[in-house]
Amino acid sequence: MNTSRRNFLKKTSVLLAASTGWSSSIFAAPEAKTLTGVQLYSVRDDMSKDPAGSLRKLAAMGYQHVEHANYVNHRFYGYSAKEFKKVLEDTGLKMPSGHTVLAPNHWDAAAGDFTDSWKKTVEDAATVGQQFVISPSLDKSLRKTQNDLKRYMDVFNRCGELCKKSGMKFGYHNHDFEFSEKLDGTSVYDIILQNTDPDLVIQQIDIGNLYNGGVKALDIMRQYPGRFVSMHVKDEIKSGNPKEPYESTLLGKGIVPVKQVIDLGKKSGGTLHFIIEQESYQNKLPMDCMKENLTTMKKWGY
Q1: How far apart, in whole angstroms, are the C-alpha atoms of residue 194 and residue 259?
Q2: Domains of the chain: which residue ranges?
Q3: Which CATH superfamily groups domain 31-299?
Q4: Could you tell me if 223 and 205 are in contact, meaning their C-beta atoms sit under 8 angstroms apart?
Q5: pTM, entire model
Q6: DSSP states along 144-213
Q7: pLDDT in tens for each of the 302 residues of the chain?
């Protein structure tokens, strides 16, 4: 199409909208859809014994999306990427994200490139249909000084560029040390968010883990609006463990204002993926907890 015709069509569409009283929003891109899923670490024992059967149980509860937490030797729960994609398809599930640690040995500083092993990891994530490749850890050797951490955030951004080639984004998932540890007076989490490109590196905020770091999800989300594309939806209760005073529990049964947090995520946090996770069960069966958690999310409109 030549330039003059392109300009003519553009002007015509604007004039048509104005003359008919249509809102200009009719020409805007559709609003991105949110989804509710479950982190498979929540049912880790079930998945280790019978991955396919466990996925069928989750699908029968009403889950449509899962997030993996087991990628070992380039296999998902013992399956190759193509095999696991077939398992997901057979159960009617999709897996838009997964947890795989980006470790120091995945980056070859001398070559200025990622190792073939990590490139294979990204390739497999694309094969199973992931949108996000999320690292749930940050090795202690990478956060000895602020400069060390800033340098590795360049690697995070480079990983984002690598994932982008396959139509995905790289992401980071917090625990608690990111908030309790400070380097030259700045928290590890602040350094991560201030030195990563949000167009390349998404943040998956775990709204329960950070309680053990001495902060609250609402405060962090208000500090960094729009940065939390993915969220681990989690509630917490006192654990009795002095090292980790809080442990996860059923949604709506603990101290986290979960509904308020997820609403803020949807409104101004940029959150599209709401991933349920529970790691402690207070004498209940993990599968029963996942069913109850999904029921709670549906009551809340998610």
Answers
A1: 27
A2: 1-28, 31-299
A3: Divalent-metal-dependent TIM barrel enzymes (3.20.20.150)
A4: no
A5: 0.89
A6: SSHHHHHHHHHHHHHHHHHHHTTT-EEEEE--SHHHH-EETTEEHHHHHHHTS-TTTEEEEEETTGGGGG
A7: 443 433 433 333 333 333 333 333 333 444 579 999 999 999 999 999 999 999 999 999 999 999 999 999 999 999 999 999 999 999 999 999 999 999 999 999 999 999 999 999 999 999 999 999 999 999 999 999 999 999 999 999 999 999 999 999 999 999 999 999 999 999 999 999 999 999 999 999 999 999 999 999 999 999 999 999 999 999 999 998 999 999 999 999 999 999 999 999 999 999 999 999 999 999 999 999 999 999 999 999 99
First-residue to last-residue Cα distance in the chain: 43
Lookup: tokens for 175? 């625990």
Tokens linked to 281:
């069960």
Tokens representing 231? 């969220």
